[in-house]
Amino acid sequence: MILASQLVLFTCIWITSMPNAFAASEIKKLPQRCSSSRKPTRKQGTRMRKDDSTKVWPLKYKQLFHIEDHDFATRPGFGGSPVPVGIDVQVESIDSISEVNMDFTMTFYLRHYWKDERLSFPSTTNRSMTFDHRLIKKIWVPDIFFVHSKRSFIHDTTMENIMLRVHPDGNVLFSLRITVSAMCFMDFGRFPLDTQNCSLELESYAYNEEDLMLYWKHGNKSLNTDEHISLSQFFVEEFSASSGFAFYSSTGWYNRLFINFVLRRHIFFFMLQTYFPAVLMVMLSWVSFWIDRRAVPARVSLGITTVLTMATIVSGVSASMPQVSYVKAVDVYLWVSSLFVFLSVIEYAAVNYLTTVEEQHRFEKTGKVSGMYNIDAVQAMAFDGCYQDSETDVDQTSFSLHSEEDSVPGRCTGSPSADSSHTKRRKSLGGDVGKAILENNHVIDTYARILFPIVYIIFNLFYWGIYV
C-alpha cells in the first residue's frame, strides 16, 4: 500500500516538471538558431566588401606609397641637392595668332619627369602604376607656370586630362593637356612681309635653382609637333627648344625653358586685298593724262575717285592692325601709291591753270578767244568727230550757244569729210578725236604719261628688293 502511494506521488511530480524542462530546452535552442542565421550574413558582407575594390583601394595606395608616413608638402630630398625635373612637350596645335592683341594660343601636352623615393614600392613584376588627377593632391608635384601668359586652362572633358605614372623605384611621370594664351612681342616693321619669332616660357614659381633644376628631358628632341599644324596666315618654319636663367631681385635665380617657333606670313592674301588694288588705282589715275584737258568734269571726277579709293584701302589696313608708333612696310607702299594718285590730281590742276594763263595771254595779244572757251567746238568734237582749230576767230562778246543748224557747218568747215556720208564720218571719229587730243594736249600731260609710270616702276623695284 505504501509502495503504491509513493508511485503515484512520483508520477505527479514528473508530469508537473516536464513542460518546464521542455520550455527551457526551447529557450536554449532559440539563440542557437538566431546565431546560425546571422553567420551567413556576416560572411556575405565580408565577401561583398572584398569584391568592392573601390572601397578598399584608397587604403591600398595610401599604404603602398606610405602617404601618411611622409610630408609631401616638401620637395624630394629637401635640404640637399636640387631635385632635377625633366620636361617634354608635344605640341598639338597653334590655335590662333592675333596681331592686334600681340598674343598666340597653343594647345600641347606637358610632361614632367622626376624621382621621389618616398613613392617607391615593392613590385615583383617591376611594372608601373598609373593614376588620374585624384592622386595629384596627395603628393608633391612641380609648380610649373608660364611666363607672360594671359590665360590658360587644363582640359577637363570628360575628366581632367591629367595622368600620373609611378614606377617601383620612385620615378614619376606627370602629364597634362593644357591650352595657353601668351604674349608674343611682334615687330611689324616689315608687315605683311614679316617673320615673327614667338616663344612660350616655362619656369618654377616657388623653387629657385637651389631647390629645383628644370631641363629638357631629351635635349633638342624634347619638343615634338604634329605634322598637320597649319595656320591661315602663317607658315610654321621652325620649332626649337632652349633653356636659360631668370633673375628676380627678391628671390634669386630660376631655371627657365623656352619653346621657340618661327612664323612666316602668307603674302598672297595681302597681294589680292591690298597691293593689287593699290596698283590698279595708281594706273587708273594715269588715264586722266590721256583725256583732253577741256574735259574738266571727267578728269576731276576720275582723280577724286581714285584718291578716295586709296584712302579707303589705307583705312581698311590700319583698322586690322595694332596702333604702333612706327612705319610698316605696307604703310610705305600705300602712302607712296596715294601720293602718285594725289599728284595726278595736282598735275591736272597745273595743266588747267597754265592753260587758262595761256588763253589770257593769247586774248591780250589777238583780242580773240581760243578754242578753250569755244563751247561749240567742244560739242562738235564730242558728237560729230570734227574739231575747230583753236585759232578760229570767235567774238569775245558772243559766248551764247549757236543753234544746231548754224554751228554744225561752222565746225566742219574745211574738213576733208564735210561732204562725206555719216558712215564715213563715224569711221574717222576716232582718228579725229585722237588727233585733236594730241594737238591740243598740254606739254605737262605729255611728260606725265612717261614720267609717272617710270617713277612708279622704279619705286616698286626698290620696294620689293628691300622687303622681300
TrEMBL record:
InterPro entries: GABAA/Glycine_rcpt, Neur_chan_lig-bd, Neur_chan_lig-bd_sf, Neur_channel, Neuro-gated_channel_TM_sf, Neuro_actylchol_rec, Neurotrans-gated_channel_TM, Neurotransmitter_ion_chnl_CS. It comes from Equus caballus. The keyword RNA-binding does not apply. It is a multi-pass membrane protein. GO terms for cellular component: chloride channel complex; GABA-A receptor complex; postsynaptic membrane. Residues 33-52, 403-428 are annotated as: Disordered. Residues 1-23 form the signal peptide. It is found in: Postsynaptic cell membrane. The chain crosses the membrane at residues 267-290, 302-321, 333-355, 447-466. GO terms for biological process: chloride transmembrane transport; synaptic transmission, GABAergic. It comes from the Eukaryota. Its main location: membrane. This is GABA(C) receptor. Residues 274-464 form the Neurotransmitter-gated ion-channel transmembrane domain. The keyword Transport applies. It holds the Pfam family Neur_chan_LBD. Keywords: Cell membrane, Chloride, Chloride channel, Disulfide bond, Glycoprotein, Ion channel, Ion transport, Membrane, Postsynaptic cell membrane, Signal, Synapse, Transmembrane, Transmembrane helix, Transport. Belongs to the ligand-gated ion channel (TC 1.A.9) family. One of its GO terms (molecular function) is chloride channel activity. It catalyses: chloride(in) = chloride(out). Residues 67-266 form the Neurotransmitter-gated ion-channel ligand-binding domain.
